[in-house]
Design goal:
11 helices, six-stranded mixed sheet, globular, four-stranded antiparallel sheet, alpha/beta, 10 strands, Rossmann fold, single chain, 258 residues
Length: 258
């Protein structure tokens, strides 16, 4: 069952075409990866889906709703969360507080009021949201980082905190932009397990932009490859690995001939 549908999406910046006639569908429960060389347009797709960019043409549908022109906060409230290629956390807040901020779309009285007002009703609401945040900390093994300021955490741990904040939004779709960047080998192996568990245990559909081909090939149900803003291939991991256009995009014409 299709949960997200991109139809003939194109976007240009000045005279530069960033995406050209991109179409694909994401089925509920999939782990769908987008790959391609630097500048291929991968993150631009995320920015269009999340409402940060508005395509020049085409349509983006989420659960049958046209979200092409919706603002980022409206897209988030509908059930699409994301992480960023460059970490977007509050450095001088703790890991717990950053994850708790992911609950803001579910707070009836907003983040600030929930933090500063202590009526019985608001206290109960805050306790509920903190319980969710604590469960995520346990799930991602972030107990040691729980009360530390983000600025003092290793880069790989910060990436997990950002993943936790997106998970705290309880989305239907989670878009992960370079989730393994800055992680060591052990952290990357753990990340593979967490991404699969997020799909299996939380029922969240996942789109990934990632350069680590080992990670992509191990966890993806389907992969789309881009080059210069155009889709050059889409299919199962084993199909993409052997696709001549993908090999050419990454390794050049000589590799294809070999």
């Amino acid at each position: 069952m299709s949960i997200l549908k991109i139809s003939n999406m194109s976007i240009s910046f000045g005279g530069l075409t960033a995406l050209s006639d991109i179409s694909f569908e994401l089925n509920k429960g999939q782990i769908f990866s987008i790959i391609g060389p630097n500048g291929a347009g991968k993150t631009t797709i995320f920015n269009c889906i999340s409402g940060n960019y508005r395509p020049n043409s085409g349509k983006i549908s989420f659960n049958g709703i046209n979200i092409t022109k919706k603002k980022p906060d409206k897209v988030a409230k509908l059930g699409i969360a994301r992480t960023f290629q460059n970490i977007e956390l509050f450095s001088h807040m703790t890991a717990l507080d950053n994850i708790l901020l992911g609950r803001h779309i579910h707070m009836k009285n907003g983040v600030l009021k929930s933090m500063l007002t202590f009526t019985e009703y608001l206290a109960k609401e805050e306790i509920k949201h903190r319980e969710v945040a604590e469960e995520i900390i346990d799930f991602l093994d972030l107990q040691s980082a729980r009360n530390q300021f983000v600025i003092n955490l290793p880069y790989g741990t910060r990436k997990l905190v950002e993943l936790g904040r997106a998970l705290a939004m309880s989305p239907e779709i989670m878009m992960l932009d370079e989730p393994s960047a800055g992680m060591n080998l052990e952290e990357r192996e753990d990340l593979k397990i967490w991404i699969k568990d997020i799909r299996d245990d939380f029922g969240i559909t996942i789109i990934i932009v990632e350069h680590d081909m080992n990670l992509v090939m191990n966890i993806s149900d389907e992969i789309m490859a881009l080059n210069f803003g155009k889709k050059i291939a889409q299919g199962k991991p084993e199909e993409i690995q052997k696709h001549p256009e993908v090999i050419k995009a990454y390794l050049g014409e000589e590799a294809v001939n070999e």
